[in-house]
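Please fill in the sequence for the structure shown.

STRUCTURE ENCODING:
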């Protein structure tokens, strides 16, 4: 069996780019993705004709995307629009580069959900949640958090700490969609969407696109920005009937723990070495579940862990320093990986973490993935 540890620090991110996020009915997903690609190319200074790998997610047709970009890749992969695809896609691209299937891979994600009024759940995805009487992923997460409250005494005021800290970071990000500060009281007085989750516990659906460009560590030395190394990753899928619908009786704890352990061992670090966590925050309880599964606190202890601004800059573990899905935009994990790269480059301005050396990404979903990035 091939030893994944041999891939530690062998793949680097050399370029990142994104569009603005918001409501852009005048442009389609190909146009948004092309804008993000151009920004990533300019970011690293690569000749676009060198890009011989293309990964697309939530983009209708890979061949059309290649035509729009004017590239002819020798490795191509199309992933659906599920949020879990961001971590999966980065790992797949790293493996493709390591195995020689391509030298430079462009990973593209685009979303036109806001301008086209796309709903996640309800009539647009019949059958996904119906066996449990749910019509949306938010309802499933509300049920999961209710169980956490009953089992461990977690409160909605503790949950509010997640939204408040992430909004604080958005206020420091000039490109974030939501930049009005919020307080614990604002969270507690917001209207319920699916109790116990309120408006401020839900992610923001927007139009936008993201691009990352990956290559080998050796080739990465030739570009404009310092490379950010992919030092480790871990994966664990959970296909029990309850997990497929994002409702897991164990809060994805076994899967998160397994993926985190793999990533830490491959990178040669522990959660204590992590300077920032980029955590898939489709709904605020997912952050609590992720903290427990990765070992930042014990199971059932995340409510107390996040109190008093622990997740804010200057706290014990800054989380989603760009404003995350809750306050920047729901780019389904892709933008969080871009933020990891920018933090390690020291490019984040007012939201920059001093001496940032290790950033972890985690997505706690039926396809749990975690990636450890380090400064090259």
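FILLED IN BY: designer on duty
SEQUENCE:
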């Amino acid at each position: 069996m091939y030893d994944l540890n041999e891939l530690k620090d062998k793949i680097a991110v050399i370029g990142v780019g994104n569009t603005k996020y918001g409501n852009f009915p005048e442009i389609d997903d190909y146009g948004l993705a092309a804008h993000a690609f151009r920004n990533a190319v300019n970011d690293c200074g690569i000749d676009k004709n060198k890009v011989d790998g293309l990964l697309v997610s939530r983009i209708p047709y890979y061949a059309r995307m290649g035509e729009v970009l004017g590239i002819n890749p020798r490795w191509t992969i199309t992933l659906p629009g599920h949020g879990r695809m961001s971590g999966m896609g980065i790992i797949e691209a790293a493996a493709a580069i390591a195995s020689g299937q391509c030298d430079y891979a462009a990973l593209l994600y685009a979303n036109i959900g806001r301008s086209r009024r796309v709903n996640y759940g309800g009539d647009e995805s019949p059958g996904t949640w119906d066996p449990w009487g749910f019509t949306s992923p938010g309802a499933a997460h509300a049920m999961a958090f209710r169980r956490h409250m009953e089992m461990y005494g977690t409160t909605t005021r503790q949950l509010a700490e997640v939204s408040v800290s992430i909004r604080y970071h958005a206020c420091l990000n000039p490109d974030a969609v939501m930049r009005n500060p919020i307080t614990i009281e604002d969270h507690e007085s917001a209207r319920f969407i699916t109790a116990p989750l309120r408006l401020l516990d839900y992610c923001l659906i927007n139009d936008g696109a993201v691009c990352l460009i990956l290559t080998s560590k050796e080739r990465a030395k030739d570009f404009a920005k310092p490379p950010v190394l992919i030092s480790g990753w871990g994966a664990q899928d959970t296909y029990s009937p309850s997990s497929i619908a994002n409702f897991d009786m164990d809060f994805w704890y076994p899967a998160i723990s397994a993926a985190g352990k793999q990533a830490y061992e491959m990178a040669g670090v522990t959660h204590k070495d992590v300077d920032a966590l980029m955590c898939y925050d489709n709904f605020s309880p997912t952050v609590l579940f992720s903290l427990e599964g990765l070992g930042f606190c014990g199971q059932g202890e995340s409510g107390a862990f996040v109190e008093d601004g622990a997740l804010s800059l200057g706290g014990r573990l800054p989380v989603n320093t760009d404003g995350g899905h809750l306050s920047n935009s729901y780019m389904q994990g892709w933008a969080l990986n871009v933020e990891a790269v920018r933090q390690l480059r020291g490019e984040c301005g007012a939201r920059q973490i001093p001496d940032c050396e290790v950033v972890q990404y985690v997505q706690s979903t039926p396809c749990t993935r975690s990636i450890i990035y380090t400064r090259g």
